[in-house]
Amino acid sequence: MKIVYVLTRSDVIGGASVHLLDLAEGMLGLGHQVTILVGGSGVFFNYASDRGIDCVAVKHMVREVSPMKDVQCFFELASLIRQLRPDLIHAHSSKAGVLARLVAKRLSVPVIFTAHGWSFTDGVSKRSRTTYRCVERLMAAYSDKIITVSEFDRQLALVNKVGGAGSVVAIHNGVRLSAIRRIRKPLCLAPKLAMVARFDEQKDQLLLVSALARLKHLSWQCDLIGDGPLLAIVKQESYKKGISDRVRFTGARKDVPDLLAKADIFVLVSKWEGLPLTILEAMRAGLPVIASDVGGVAESVDHGKTGILVPRGNEDKLVDALSKLILSHELRDNYGRAGLNRFFDLFGFEAMLRKTIAVYDDVVRK
């Protein structure tokens, strides 16, 4: 099968980017032909090249709404897809999802869209939710199948009339096994927390910094891994709160598994989510997880067994959860072991790949 993937941005590496790279590599391993069309020519190309995946830059693809560039992008995508003559188009991320589906309809090519969390979910502003809901309802008619990364998002789509029960399928994210194992640290050392996320509107590193500032009396260290437009603001807040000597800003890193292997607790504080890959990577590393109870997060974190779920924006509950795991080595170890077992049972990469191929076969056959 000849597959073309379409992604909006190449200048950042986030959950959708990592998911797509894993998926494309998996399809290559099964003998399929794969090309990724992606906006710009940023760091994504380096990651793709390392995996032997063909990438083509779409110069007019931009994240922001730009009528002139969007029209140009439509014709640019159409030209590229005519040349590639794929059996199937699989789009990821919102802008790519809209344009790729319109092009696919124009060229009569089967098309699938994966929603890595809906933009009309709770936590997004009401005005934006209304706009995105209307757009996704319209675009559902141009989709042969819609894949959501959690059952939460599948139900959200159905409730909002974005596709029907037969056209929307949930396939949990899956990550590959890693040879890296967590380094067990002596009890006398301060537990190390880690959060892997871009510093942007969706994530809430500011809330985490505020919560940690209330736990100065405890021994801990924290790595905030990632970059983004709000990085400087969060750094400044850590100085204001007097914890800058205990919070390390690592920037974007390619060695995240190594960093997680050296951590003791994983934290993901968010305003909305799909099914975050970083949580699955933390479970793979045998880490207990503290995460905001948003989107499909509860489908990965078993509250009270593999970690602690905290209501969105609730600083007091976040402080309680952090305190509990910082103080108890036994609880960290129990949650971490249970999380690793849950990862093996539910979130292996092969299961995700197998289910995705089944959707591909169904769409192409029809």
TrEMBL record:
An example Gene Ontology molecular-function term: glycosyltransferase activity
Domain Glycosyl transferase family: 191-339
InterPro entries in alphabetical order: Glyco_trans_1, Glyco_trans_4-like_N
Gene3D superfamilies listed in its UniProt record: Glycogen Phosphorylase B
Domain called Glycosyltransferase subfamily 4-like N-terminal: residue spans: 13-177
Keywords: Transferase
GO biological process: carbohydrate derivative metabolic process
UniProt superkingdom: Bacteria
Name of the protein: Glycosyltransferase family 1 protein
Record lineage: Bacteria, Pseudomonadati, Pseudomonadota, Gammaproteobacteria, Pseudomonadales
